[in-house]
Amino acid sequence: MTARSQATNTQKRPKVQCSATTKQLLFNQVTPDRAFLPAQDPLLRLPPGLQAYEDALQELPKLTLGSPGFLRQTLQDLPCFDLQQLPALASCDTAQLLQQLPPACQCYTAAAGTSSSSSSSPQQSTADVLRSFPSCDAQLWRAYMVLAFLTHGFLWCDGPGVPSVLPHLLAGFLWCDGPGVPSVLTQLLAQPFAAVSAAIGMPPVLTYATYNLMNWRRLDPAAPLELGNICCQHNFFGGMDEEWFRLIHVAIEAAAAPAIAALQPLQQAALQHDAAAMELHFAAITSALQAMQELLARMGERCDPYVYYKRVRVPMSGWRNNEALPQGLVYEGLWGNQPQQLYGETGAQSTVVHALDAALGIQHTKGWMQAYLTDMRAHMPPSHRAFLHQLEQEPSVRDAVQALAQTTTSSSSSNNNSSGSNKSSSSSSLVEAYDAAIAELERFRSQHRAFAIAYIAQWSKKEAKEVGTGGSDFVPALSAYKDATAAHKLAGSSSSSRGCPLHS
Ligand code: HEM
């Protein structure tokens, strides 16, 4: 499709009206307590009229144990997903809605100007971004999650493509082996999934939001949202490794909240040249990043790297740059049955690190990773995209630190007696506070890169050697991101002496 026809389609995008009477919302705000996790604990069920879909999701890990074909057949035998059961869509003409849906892959160009090919437009306000995708209805989000799990179960958890943890490498076993992966998503799932996705402004594919951000519940509803008091709502294959992998992400999102809560106040303090306040916000970011590292270091406690590589990550796959579905996926009956290409679920869709980069003024060199990460924004809830967009509209905090440091230095050299205004702090302590935050972000990236190697690259390298496929080209890109982060320190790298928590 040409850029021009994409732009035309964007203008024609149907606006699905969200019912104003809906009471429970999800992803409608970024809160100081929970940042990008939902402010209210996520819904556990759809309305009773959609019970069969909830039951299928509940049973998914059991259904994957059936003989080849069993899971897909079971899903194809479900009754029609009645969109009218969702109060927010009850007044929609769903047949008309389905006919008007934009192509799925348009999320890379239509989502709030976040495409890699058309970079974010400075004219577009946060309100514009949110207006494009207004619905935060909790039931629509629940339907989106249910349909995403069943779709990925249908594609990746049945037939000869089902992964095994047995060491089949020499035999040439690959998870995407043979005819196991259908290139057509049954209409029964494709149509409601596409419609619900369009209504909330998300791509019709499993996302970080559905896999992690809203896929948990508290064991004790009165106790905090933290590791030890959370479990997953749903799994594909089930088991401790899959569950733990996600819970670590959820816990990291919760631990990141004090850092995310500090970002906009930090930008305000920078605008007001309030160095003392800036130092406090940098300190909050620094300690949140340390807490995030402590949590990531616990990944190996219950998620084994090999089980992750061979089984846990499989259902997260998408249908873009995926050799199992080289053309993409046909959503049966939609978009002229033309295959759509969409990336699968990844931590790169978490808004946390994007937001830290944006607020701390970290810039990365252009390359495939930068374009990819821009595309990943289309997989974030619209309110998170809007939050990022807002951060990016403010002047650089890094420039403000540099300017304040220079002012303080020159005023103290011209006036030995100077203690500056009560808003000032010494130039060195402000720079140190900024650099400490950068150093922790660099450590997080360094630790994360080590996990990406331990959980993916080392195995795909072996496969590449043994069966001539696979690859780990993301490792140099992750290294470059880590190095670029470090390069933003203002006073050298002396504060970066703590070891990598992966090895602690
Ligand atoms: C064992 C755990 C993890 C593994 C194996 C892993 C793997 C990867 C891989 C392979 C990439 C390259 C791009 C892609 O494939 O999407 C990536 C990127 C990324 N991941 Fe992870 N990841 C893990 C945990 C996390 C966690 C806990 C977070 C944060 C919540 C996270 C956030 C990111 C981000 C933001 C990027 C983009 C690169 C950057 O900004 O530095 N990942 N990850």
From TrEMBL:
The keyword Ribosomal protein does not apply. Residues 404-427 are annotated as: Disordered. One of its GO terms (molecular function) is heme binding. The keyword Heme applies. Pfam families: IDO. Keywords: Heme, Iron, Metal-binding. InterPro entries: Indolamine_dOase (IPR000898), Trp/Indoleamine_2_3_dOase-like (IPR037217). One of its GO terms (biological process) is L-tryptophan catabolic process to kynurenine. Gene3D superfamilies: 1.20.58.480. It comes from the Eukaryota. Residues 410-427 have a biased composition (Low complexity). Heme b binds at residue 448. Belongs to the indoleamine 2,3-dioxygenase family. This is Indoleamine 2,3-dioxygenase. It comes from Tetradesmus obliquus. The lineage of its organism: Eukaryota, Viridiplantae, Chlorophyta, core chlorophytes, Chlorophyceae.
